[in-house]
Design brief:
heterotetramer; A alpha/beta (284); B alpha/beta (487); C mainly alpha (336); A: 284 residues; alpha/beta; 6-stranded parallel beta sheet; 10 helices; 12 strands; C: 336 residues; two-stranded antiparallel ribbon; 2 strands; 71% helix; binds adenosine-5'-triphosphate; binds magnesium ion
Chain lengths: 284, 487, 336, 336
C-alpha cells in the first residue's frame, strides 16, 4: 500500500504555509505517497491535538512545523512511542522525538534584513518595526535577530515596535500611525509580506513612496512583484514550495532507512531590485 | 413588642419626588393599611422599608434602633418580609424551591457533604401552601404557573419566613374571593401572634375588613392618618384624591340585555361554544388557573394558544379591530420603551408612512390619552418601567384606545388601578359596548365581573364548565355556585 | 370601638403633578446619559496632551479612515443588538464580501463586483436570521457557526490567497479607496452616508420602533402585532448588508480581497455598541452612541500607537480603559 | 329575559393535581431533553463509519485527553452562564495560570507552582466578578476587557516567550501531563474529579440552587433574600478557578507555560455550554450536558482529522454541524 504522510503545519491561511503545502502535495504525488493535513491555525493546543490524531490514525510519518519549540514535545513523544518518525519543517523543536529538521535560521534572516537596511539607508535613521503576532516563536526569533542587527549599526535606531497579526490590514493601519508619529522614519520592517504590502499602501498614500524602505519576508508572488515595481524594497525568498518538497524527500528517505543526521538546511535569499527578475513568479 | 417607625423619609427618581417627608409607624399586632392613588408612592415607601431602595433622607427605626438596609436579604434577617407588587418567581425552579429560596433546608450526606434536604423542602413548602389553602404541587416548575398561581407562590414565600414585620403590596390584585379570604385568615393569625403588618390595596372594602389603622399617601406625602376603624370609603377616597367622588363603588351598569344578532366572536371549546355578540360584555369567570388567559390569547390569534383562532394571527386580529389587555403587564408593555412608543406600538401603521412616523400626530394622540386616563407623571418619554404599577396598567389599556376597536379582550383590566381610575375605565368599557363594541372580560374581582358583564361563562382547566345568562338569578350567589360546584 | 379623630389633613397639598426636581438634577440626568461621549473627549484630550501629532489634520483624517470600516459594521451590529440578537459572523462576512466582490469585479466590472459583495453579505444575513428567528437557535451559537463556516467558504473560494488578479483590481475601485472629497477620504463619506440612512430608519420609522419593541420584550411586541420573527430576521439582514458594504470598503482600502480580513471585527464591533451604552439583552441603544463607541476603540488604538506605548502595555491599557469607560457608563443606571 | 339552563356540568373532574401526561409523552419529554447526547452519538457513529480508527482505544483516550482541558474550563463557564453571566477571559486566564504556574514551579517547586496558577485564576475571577456584580458592567464588555488585559499581563511577565527554564519544568509535573491511571491519562481523571465536585455543588447544594435563581430571575432571587451580587461574583471566581486548573493542566501537557495558550477557548467553551442546551440568558443548563457539548466539539475536530477532511472544508463542516446540533436541540423548545 502507498505510504501516508501526516502533515501538521502551523497555519493554513498564511501564504507561506499555503505554498509549502503545495510543495508537499506535489512531491508526494510524484513519489506516489498519500498526504493528510491537520490544521492548527497558530493555536498550540490544536496542533498538539492534531499530531495526536495523526498518531491515532497510524500514518507512516509526520511532517510538522511546530508553533512552539517546547509545547509539541509531548505529542512528538507520543509519535515516537508509536514508532512514527516526525520531521520538523521550517520551525524546530528540541524534543528527542524529532527525527530530523529541515531548518531555517530565523535569527540570521533577521540580522540579514537589518544589514540590508543599514546598507541602503546609508546606516543612519529611524526604523519602525511591525513585528508578527505576540508569542509566536518564529517571529520572536526574526525580530530578535533584526534588533541585534540594528544594534550593531550605530546610526540606526528602532523608534516604534508593535506586534500584530499577519494581515495586510494591520500593516496598513500600523504604517498610517507610524507615518504620523514618526514622519522621518527611513525604514519600516514588516514581519511578513502581507504586512509589508499593507505598509507600502500607507506609504504611497502619504506620498512618500521611495522615501521609506519597506521590508517584508517570505517571497510570496505579490511581494516579489511589488519589489519589481518599487512598492516594497525587500523580501526574503524562503522558497516554501521547495521547502515542502524537501520535507517530503527527507521523509521518504527516512522511511527507506536513510536517516539524515541533524538538520537539513535550506537557504534563504534576500530579494531586492537587483535580483528580483530571477525571482519573479512565472506569468500565467 | 415590635415597632417599626418611619421618620421624615424622602426619595426621588430623576425629576419625580416619589416620597416627601413621610413619617408613620406600625406596632406588632396591628395591621396598617397604606392607601393612595396610583403613583402616590406606596410601593416606593415599602421598598425603602424592605431594603430594596435607599432613601435620600430620613430614617427607619425598628424597636428604636436605626435600620440601614442594603438588600431584602438584610431586611429579612431583621424580620422584615415583603410581598412585592411585581410578581417575581424564578421560572426554572420548582414551586418549593421558589418558596424556600432564601433559606433552603440543608443536610449533610455521609456527615460531611452539604446537600439540599429535598424531602424537608417539599414538606415545608407543602405546609405553607396548605396554610393558604392552595393545591399546587411543590415540584411544578414555577414557569408553568398562571399569574394568580404565581401570586400565591410569592405570598407563600413571604409567609414561609419568620416575620416581625410583614409587608403586602397589593397581594390580592389578581386573586379571587376564596383565596383572598384564606389570605386574610393567615394575616389575622399573624396579627394575633403580634406580627406588624403593612397592607397596601386599592380594594378599599378589604381595608375596612382587615385594617386597624390607615394611612393615606398622596403625591409622596402622608395626607391622612386614621387611627381606628371604621374607614368609610367616601372619606378614604376624598383623602386620596383631594376631591369628593360620587360613590365610585356603585354598580355602574344594568346588565341583563343580550343584544340581538349573530355572534361576532365564536370559538369551540371543550364543553361548548364561547360566543360574544356586538354590544355584549361577555364575562369569563373561573378559579385558579382556569384557562381564561389561554382563551383570550386564542381569541386574539396568538399562534401558541392552542386551538383554531378566529383571526388566524395577531396582525390580522388587530387589523380587524381586536385588542387584548393581557393579565400580566410584562406581556403588554415593553418596559424599556417610552410611554409614548408603547401606546402607539400596536397601531404604528396608522401613525406612520413608509419613510417616517407621524411624530406630530403621535404626540397629539398620546397627550390626549394620558390626560384621559390620568397617567402620571405626564411625561410621554419616560420609560414605562419607571411608572408605578397602576399607571403601567393604564398604559396597557391606553394602547387600545388610540385607534378604533371593534373587540376588546380584557384580562384583569383594572389590576392595580386605583378606585377613581377604575371607575373611569369601567365607564370606558361600558361606553365601548354601548357603541356596539364587543368585550370579553375576565376578572377575578367578582363584583367587577358581575357589574359589567351581560353573560358570564365559567371556565375550568380550559373547559367551558357553565354559563350564566341574564335573568333574575344573575348575581353573586349563582356565580359562586357555578364556580365552586364540582371544583 | 370609638372612632378616633378621622382624617387629619397634614401639611400643604402638593400639586396634582408630582413635583419636578431642581434644574441641576435635570441637567445631571442628561449629562450622565452622555458618559460615552465624555469618555471619548477625555481620551482625545489625553491623547492630544501626550502627543502633539494627535490633533494634526493628517492624524484626525487617519482616525476617521480607520474608523470607517468598523463604523459601518457597527451600524448593522447595533440593529441586531437592539433587536435582541448578537452577530459574531460579521468579520467573516467582511472577508467574504471583499473576496467575492474582488473576484466578480475582475470579471465583470466594478458595479457588478460591488453588487456581488453586498449580495453575499445579505445572503449570510438571511441565513443567520432564518436560523435564529425561525429555527430558534441561540444567536450566539448560530452566528458563531456561520462565522466559522463562512471563513471556510472564503478560504475555499480563494484557496487562501488574496484576490488581486494579474493586473490588480480596476483602477476606479482603487481610486475609491484612496480618494478624498472636501479633505476627507471617500470611505469616510461612505460610512457617514450609511450612518445617516440607517439612523433615520432606526429612529424615525415604524420599522425602527418595532426593532426596539422586539428586543425590549418579544412577548409584548408579539402581543402588539409586531411580526417579531420577521423583524429579528431583518436585523440580521441589515447586519449582513452593512458587513458586506464594509467588506467592499476594506477591499478597496487593501486593494485586494483578503481571505483573512475582518478577524476580531465582531468583538470590536460588539464592544463598540456596548461601550455606546446599549444593553446586550436588547431594546436599548442609539446609533450615534454606537459610533461614539467605535471612535473610543479607534482613538484608543491610534493614540497608544502615537504615544509609542509598548505592544504588551497597550493591551493592558486597552483593557483598563474599556472597563473604566463601561463602569463610568454604569453610573447612570445605578439605583437600588 | 328567561334564565337559561344553568350549570352544565361537563366531563369528569380533573384532579386538583394537574393531570400527568401519558407515558409516551413523558418519555418523549425526556427524549427531546437528550438531543445533545443523541447528536453526540450520531457524530460518533458517523465517525466510526468513516474511519475504522475512531473507535480504537488509543483514539478514544485521545479524545478524552483533548477534551480534558476544555471540559474543566467549561465547568466554570457553565456556572457563569447559569448564573446569567458570560466569561470571555478564560482563554487568557489559561495562559496566565500556565505561565505563572510554570514560573513559580521553577523557583519553588510543583505544589507552589500549581497553587500560584490556581490563585492567579481566582484573582482574575474576583476582578471579573467585582466589575460585573458590583460595578454593574455588562459581562461581555467586562470580560472582553480582562481577556485583552490579562493577555497583556501574560506577555509582559513572559516577555512573549514560553516559560520552560533552563532544565525544563520539574519532571514530576511533566509526568503528570503524560501518565496514565487505569488506562486513562491523569489529566482526564483530573477533569472527571473537577466535574464531580462541581456537579455536586451545582446540583445538590443550596448555593447551586441560588445560582440558578440568580440567573433565572435576578429580581426574584434578590427579593427572596438571595445575595445576588455575591452569587454572581462567586460564579466568576469559580470560572477563574477552573480556568486556572485548566491552565496548569495545559502547561503540563505542553511541558511549558505558553503565553499564547488558550486562544479561542472562550468561544469553544461557550459554544459547548450552549450546545449542551443552556440558555445564554441564564437560569438553565446542566453540568453533564455541558460536558456533552464539550465532547461534541472535540469529537467533531478529532473525527475530521481522522477522516482527513481538508482544513477549509473542516471549517465549513464544523459550522454546519454546530448549527444542525443547535437547531435539533431547539425542537424541544419550540413555541411561538
Ligand atoms: N424606578 C423608578 N424610576 C423612576 N421613577 C419611579 C421608579 N419607581 C417609581 N417611580 C415613580 O415614583 C412614583 C411613585 O411610584 P410608586 O410605585 O411608589 O407608586 P404606588 O403608590 O405604588 O402606585 P400604584 O398604586 O400604581 O402601584 C411614581 O410617580 C413613579 O413614576
Ligand atoms: N386548555 C387547557 N387544558 C388544561 N389545562 C389548562 C388549559 N388552559 C389552561 N390550563 C391550566 O391553567 C393554568 C394556566 O392557565 P391560564 O394562565 O390561562 O389561567 P388563568 O385563568 O389566567 O389563571 P389565573 O386566573 O389563575 O391567572 C395552567 O396551569 C394550566 O394547567
Ligand atoms: Mg405600587
Ligand atoms: Mg387570569
Amino acid at each position: 500500500a502507498a505510504q501516508t504522510i501526516g502533515v501538521s503545519l502551523a497555519s493554513d491561511v498564511n501564504p507561506f504555509y499555503i505554498a509549502m503545502k503545495r510543495g508537499i502535495e506535489e512531491r508526494a504525488k510524484e513519489l506516489g505517497m498519500k498526504v493528510v493535513f491537520v490544521t492548527a491555525n497558530e493555536v498550540i493546543s490544536q496542533q498538539v491535538n492534531g499530531i495526536q490524531d495523526l498518531v491515532a490514525r497510524k500514518v507512516d510519518g509526520i511532517l510538522a512545523s511546530p508553533i512552539d519549540a517546547v509545547a509539541v514535545g509531548a505529542a512528538y513523544n507520543v509519535a515516537a512511542k508509536a514508532g512514527i518518525p516526525v520531521i520538523s519543517v521550517a520551525r524546530h523543536t528540541d524534543s528527542p522525538g524529532q527525527s530530523a529538521y529541515v531548518s531555517m535560521d530565523e535569527q540570521q534572516i533577521g540580522r540579514d534584513i537589518a544589514a540590508w537596511i543599514a546598507k541602503h539607508s546609508g546606516g543612519k535613521g529611524k526604523i519602525a518595526m511591525v513585528a508578527g503576532p505576540s508569542g509566536a516563536a518564529t517571529f520572536r526569533n526574526l525580530a530578535e535577530g533584526f534588533e541585534a542587527g540594528v544594534k550593531s549599526a550605530p546610526g540606526l535606531s528602532i523608534v516604534y515596535r508593535k506586534e500584530v497579526p499577519l494581515t495586510r490590514e494591520m500593516g496598513l493601519q500600523q504604517a498610517e500611525d507610524i507615518l504620523v508619529a514618526h514622519p522621518d522614519v527611513v525604514a519600516i520592517y514588516g514581519a511578513n509580506d502581507e504586512i509589508a504590502l499593507g505598509a507600502s499602501q500607507a506609504v504611497a498614500a502619504a506620498g512618500k513612496k521611495g522615501k521609506v524602505l519597506i521590508t517584508g519576508m517570505n517571497g510570496t508572488p505579490p511581494a516579489v512583484r511589488a519589489v519589481k515595481n518599487g512598492a516594497v524594497d525587500l523580501t526574503v525568498d524562503l522558497n516554501p514550495v521547495a521547502w515542502g518538497r524537501l520535507g517530503v524527500d527527507t521523509m521518504a528517505n527516512y522511511l527507506k532507512g536513510q536517516k539524515p543526521t541533524g538538520t537539513v538546511a535550506i537557504k534563504h535569499v534576500l530579494v531586492d531590485k537587483t535580483n528580483v527578475d530571477k525571482h519573479l513568479p512565472p506569468a500565467k | 413588642m415590635t415597632e417599626l417607625e418611619v421618620c421624615g423619609l424622602s426619595k426621588h427618581f430623576g425629576a419625580t419626588q416619589a416620597l416627601a417627608d413621610v413619617s408613620l409607624s406600625v406596632r406588632g399586632g396591628q395591621v396598617l393599611a397604606l392607601i393612595g392613588e396610583n403613583g402616590a408612592g406606596k410601593s416606593t415607601l415599602i421598598k425603602v422599608l424592605s431594603g430594596i431602595h435607599r432613601p435620600d433622607r430620613g430614617e427607619v427605626r425598628l424597636n428604636g434602633q436605626p435600620l440601614r438596609l442594603h438588600s431584602p436579604a438584610e431586611g429579612m434577617a431583621a424580620g422584615i418580609v415583603l410581598v412585592p407588587q411585581d410578581l417575581h418567581v424564578v421560572p426554572g425552579l420548582s414551586v418549593a424551591e421558589n418558596i424556600l429560596l432564601g433559606h433552603l433546608p440543608t443536610r449533610r450526606v455521609a456527615g460531611v457533604l452539604p446537600s439540599i434536604d429535598r424531602k424537608a423542602m417539599r414538606a415545608m413548602a407543602q405546609s405553607v401552601l396548605q396554610d393558604i389553602g392552595v393545591a399546587l404541587h411543590p415540584d411544578t416548575p414555577a414557569g408553568e404557573l398562571s399569574f394568580a398561581e404565581r401570586q400565591l407562590v410569592v405570598i407563600a414565600r413571604a409567609l414561609g419566613r419568620e416575620a416581625r414585620v410583614l409587608i403586602l403590596d397589593e397581594p390580592t390584585a389578581s386573586l379571587e374571593r376564596r383565596e383572598v379570604e384564606r389570605l386574610f385568615d393567615v394575616v389575622r393569625r399573624l396579627r394575633a401572634q403580634s406580627v406588624a403588618v403593612i397592607y397596601i390595596s386599592h380594594r378599599l372594602e378589604e381595608v375596612e375588613g382587615l385594617a386597624d389603622r390607615c394611612v393615606v399617601l398622596r403625591d409622596g406625602r402622608v395626607v391622612a392618618h386614621m387611627e381606628a376603624p371604621p374607614f368609610p370609603i367616601g372619606q378614604l377616597v376624598e383623602a386620596m384624591t383631594g376631591r369628593v367622588l360620587a360613590d365610585p363603588g356603585a354598580s355602574p351598569r344594568e346588565s341583563g340585555q343580550i343584544p340581538a344578532g349573530a355572534p361576532r366572536l365564536r370559538v369551540a371549546l371543550e364543553g361548548g361554544t364561547f360566543e360574544c355578540r356586538s354590544g355584549e360584555i361577555a364575562g369569563i369567570g373561573g378559579l385558579l388557573g382556569s384557562g381564561a388567559k389561554a382563551l383570550l390569547r386564542r381569541l386574539f390569534g396568538a399562534s401558541d394558544a392552542g386551538g383554531a383562532s378566529p383571526h388566524g394571527s395577531i396582525r390580522h386580529a388587530i387589523a380587524a379591530g381586536v385588542g387584548l389587555v393581557p393579565g400580566e403587564r410584562a406581556h403588554s408593555l415593553v418596559m424599556s420603551m417610552s410611554v409614548r412608543d408603547n401606546i402607539v406600538l400596536a397601531h404604528l401603521d396608522a401613525y406612520a408612512h413608509a419613510f417616517a412616523r407621524h411624530e406630530g400626530r403621535i404626540d397629539e394622540a398620546v397627550a390626549r390619552l394620558m390626560e384621559l386616563l390620568d397617567i402620571r407623571p405626564r411625561s410621554p418619554h419616560l420609560p414605562v418601567a419607571h411608572l408605578s404599577g397602576g399607571n403601567q396598567q393604564k398604559v396597557a389599556f391606553a394602547k387600545w384606545l388610540v385607534a378604533r376597536r371593534e373587540v376588546l379582550l380584557l384580562d384583569e383590566p383594572t389590576n392595580g388601578i386605583d378606585i377613581a381610575a377604575k371607575a373611569l375605565i369601567h365607564e370606558r368599557i361600558i361606553a365601548f359596548a354601548a357603541e356596539g363594541g364587543s368585550v370579553v372580560l375576565s376578572s377575578s374581582d367578582l363584583p367587577e365581573l358581575l357589574a359589567l358583564s351581560d353573560t358570564i361563562s365559567v371556565l375550568r382547566q380550559g373547559r367551558l364548565a357553565g354559563r350564566m345568562e341574564p335573568g333574575a338569578s344573575f348575581g353573586e350567589a349563582r356565580l359562586r355556585d357555578l364556580l365552586e360546584s364540582s371544583a | 370601638m370609638s372612632r378616633s379623630p378621622p382624617l387629619q389633613p397634614l401639611a400643604g397639598n402638593a400639586a396634582a403633578q408630582p413635583s419636578v426636581g431642581s434644574a441641576p438634577a435635570w441637567i445631571r440626568g442628561r449629562a450622565v446619559d452622555q458618559i460615552p461621549t465624555a469618555v471619548l473627549l477625555v481620551l482625545c484630550a489625553f491623547a492630544a496632551l501626550m502627543s502633539d501629532r494627535f490633533l494634526s489634520s493628517a492624524n484626525l483624517s487617519n482616525v476617521l479612515l480607520q474608523a470607517a470600516v468598523l463604523a459601518v459594521i457597527t451600524v448593522g451590529m447595533t440593529y441586531v443588538i437592539i433587536g435582541g440578537g448578537f452577530d459574531l459572523s460579521v468579520g467573516s462576512v467582511v472577508a467574504l464580501a471583499g473576496c467575492i466582490g474582488a473576484e466578480v469585479m475582475l470579471q465583470a466590472g466594478i458595479t457588478a463586483g460591488v453588487a456581488a459583495g453586498l449580495l453575499a453579505g445579505v445572503a449570510v444575513g438571511l441565513v443567520n436570521g432564518t436560523v435564529v428567528a425561525y429555527l430558534g437557535v441561540s444567536p450566539f451559537i448560530a452566528t458563531l457557526a456561520t462565522m466559522v463556516l463562512v471563513r471556510g467558504v472564503v478560504l475555499l473560494i480563494t484557496n487562501g490567497a488574496p484576490v488581486v488578479g494579474e493586473e490588480g483590481l480596476p483602477q476606479g475601485f482603487l481610486d475609491y479607496g484612496t480618494s478624498r472629497f472636501l479633505g476627507l477620504p471617500l470611505l469616510v463619506w461612505t460610512a457617514a452616508a450609511v450612518f445617516v440612512v440607517f439612523a433615520w430608519i432606526l429612529h424615525r420609522t415604524a420599522y425602527g420602533t418595532r426593532i426596539y419593541a422586539t428586543g425590549g420584550s418579544r412577548e409584548a411586541a408579539f402581543l402588539s402585532g409586531v411580526p417579531v420573527r420577521r423583524i429579528s430576521l431583518s436585523t440580521y439582514v441589515v447586519s449582513g448588508l452593512t458587513a458586506g458594504i464594509a467588506g467592499v470598503m476594506l477591499a478597496s482600502r487593501l486593494q485586494s480581497g483578503q481571505p483573512t480580513a475582518g478577524e476580531f471585527y465582531e468583538l470590536n464591533s460588539i464592544a463598540a455598541v456596548v461601550l455606546g451604552g446599549a444593553a446586550l439583552h436588547g431594546g436599548e441603544g442609539k446609533l450615534y452612541k454606537s459610533m461614539v463607541g467605535v471612535l473610543i476603540m479607534v482613538v484608543l488604538a491610534n493614540s497608544l500607537n502615537l504615544i509609542g506605548v509598548d505592544s504588551y502595555w497597550q493591551r493592558v491599557t486597552i483593557g483598563l480603559v474599556i472597563v473604566a469607560a463601561a463602569a463610568a457608563d454604569q453610573l447612570r443606571r445605578r439605583r437600588r
